[in-house]
Amino acid sequence: MSTKIFVEREIGNRTLRFETGQVAKQASGAVIASYADSVVMCTAMRSDPRPGLDFFPLQCDYRERTSAGGKFPGGFRKREGAPNEKEILTMRLMDRPIRPLFPDGYIDECQIQAWVMSHDGENDTDVLACSAASMALCLTDSPFEGPVATVRIGRIVTDDGETYVINPTHTQMQYSDLDLVLSGHSDGINMIEIGAAQVDEAGVMGAIKFGYEEGIKPILEMQLELMEKAGKSEKRVGDLSLPSDEVASKVKELVEAKMLEARRIKGKAERSDAIGELRNSMIEENFSIPEGCSYSDHTAAEKQQREAKEAFRKLEKKCTRKLIVEESIRADGRAMNQIRDLEMEPKIFPRTHGSAFFQRGETQSLVTCTLGTGRDEQIVDGLMPEYAKKFYLHYNFPPFCVGEAGRIMGPGRREIGHGALAERSLLGILPEVDDFPYTIRLVSDITESNGSSSMASVCGGCLALMDAGVPIQNTCAGISVGRFSNDEGKIVRVMDIIGEEDFFGDMDFKVCGTKTGITGVQLDLKARGLWFDELEVIFEEAKVGRLNIIDQMEAVLDGPREELSEHAPRMLTIPIDPEKIGKLIGPGGKTIRAITEQTGAKIDINDDGIVFISSVNLDAALAAKAAVEAIAAEIKVGSVFEGKVVSTRDFGAFIEIAPGTDGMCHISELADGFVDKVENICKVGDMIKVKVINVDDTGRIKLSVKALLKDAEKDSAKDGDDSSEESASESEKETVES
């Protein structure tokens, strides 16, 4: 009989429970994590390293089974397929706080799988899976230096003011101006992901402190308690893939001085070539594999060569950090808080709705903006309630942007993650849908890259939005902050990091926002953790850099263009009575299709009776609007229409005053005087202006041309009287003056 071991605690007014011992007993570690009625099963496997591997092969996998929410998979094949965007982003959330907490040189196979088994539609399972992944790892004998906990924090305005909420429900998030995912452990914060509606730095820091104290701390205590109950405290490090002290010392002696000199070269390509040449010459002259030797000697020489390459990489990292921390020398020669030179140009492509070129140092992005209608919305279906995205950003990172010839394929996890960060950061400045009902798509193509291409996508994306005439709330920019430390514990931070500073540094802290506040944050940390005082300093440093970039962007384009691009669709909205929707659509869609064919405009209707009309040609959109208004209008006595004669009889003519709506004009009302035959006045197909003179109880409409003619006579007579009175007044005035 299996023994079920569990711990549970109240977190955010709901019960969080970790359970092990019953399910997946052959896995290295397994846990069932539940929060309210949402449940995730998570397993962790440790296995021997693959031969020849020189990196840590951590695999994090998260899948949402539609059965968890009582749904069937969409599409023809009723089985889940490749992971969707939400699942991939959750895998990244799992990986980023866990990966740095393994010892250097650890290369054993490590595989984490999280399956959503139950979903209540209110409590999302992404952050639950992240904490469950840590719990499963803690139940293995892997040298995982955790546990780590992950929570979501929202901020909702109540009668008591702004209130922070731990793990807000789906409904609560509809009223939150902040979506913060936070990971941390006993030594501080080690992962941050934020989307916000221009929340200031103080508000973000308040959420981080609240999340750590009210969420992360108790979840860490729960994991330690379950480890103790399960008796899983023994850890086995195994063989670490590290160079021997002898090889490391020899490499240092051979190349350290030359390495420090090469790392001072400012150009990326020149610096890379010099370091590559130094590595190759060192290997060839000191660690080459001799020819004609025995198999055992060949194997030993091959191993020593691998160690020398790894020792060279570690020495390069150490030299880079030494130059920055001790001598304040960055790879490209900039000052610690200096931003690379910027180059910007909006409207670089003639036929796009909006476009921009943005370059910062050796990183550049071409961004295009496309405006569409409701038909272009991205429908997102999953375990959470289905919704439509009216704004999305796609990020592309081709091999040539880093001077390589690689495989040409679809977007990977990195591209999806960077695109999501840029999308989330720009979402906070978009106008309300009621004010700007367009669907917006941005495409950021990275054409050159040396660090912070996602931040280039934010800046270029903002310029492209303004170039398209999207009435954004404020100019938005993004900047990255790096961190370096040495063996003595001295810490320095640098602004606007390049690729090598990201690779060799402790952290990549990306902050996006406007002059008003923050819209997006992403923290990737290789160091153990950050505490609140350092986070506050980083936010202030990032703010200075962000405002600097915004000023330069606004010098190029100071706001959204007043008019949309001539190539963008014009969109008009008309509210109609929902009961008239059927009449507007017509039998089998006949009526609405006829309007579309006659005008060339596209028409979409939502359930609330809001009609969206779009066309690149404004006249076509206005014509469609007039037709819709005519159909949906309530026909009242006194209304005037220009209608089409659809049939004639001896007693009068039937006139279509709106698609699907006819009225009858009696022969006596066709003219001001005697009419012998209807055909003497009008024929089928003629357009004729008429006035509604009666609508009976059954809805039958009586029309008149005579009434319009009499109205015209009265107006003419009135104008004549007004003219006479004016003349008399002028005469009187002249008499008085005389």
Summarize the structure.
By secondary structure, the protein is α+β, with helices and mostly antiparallel strands. The protein is built from 15 helices and 29 strands. The strands form six sheets. It has an eight-stranded antiparallel sheet, sandwiched between helices. A six-stranded mixed sheet has the order 1-2-3-4-6-5. A five-stranded mixed sheet has the order 11-12-13-17-16.
What is the fold's blueprint, element by element?
Blueprint: E1 5-11, E2 14-20, E3 29-35, E4 38-47, E5 58-64, H1 85-98, E6 109-118, H2 126-138, E7 149-158, E8 161-166, H3 170-173, E9 176-185, E10 188-199, H4 201-230, H5 245-262, H6 268-286, H7 295-327, E11 342-346, E12 354-360, E13 363-372, E14 378-380, E15 387-389, E16 391-396, H8 413-427, E17 439-448, H9 453-468, E18 477-485, E19 491-495, H10 499-504, E20 507-513, E21 518-525, H11 532-556, E22 570-575, H12 581-585, H13 590-599, E23 602-605, E24 610-615, H14 618-632, E25 640-649, E26 652-658, E27 661-666, E28 687-695, E29 701-704, H15 706-737
Parallel strand pairs: 5-6, 16-17, 27-29
Antiparallel strand pairs: 1-2, 2-3, 3-4, 4-6, 7-8, 7-9, 9-10, 10-21, 11-12, 12-13, 13-17, 14-15, 18-19, 18-20, 20-21, 22-24, 23-24, 25-26, 25-28, 26-27, 28-29
Helix pairs in contact: 1-2, 1-8, 2-4, 4-11, 5-6, 5-7, 8-9, 13-14
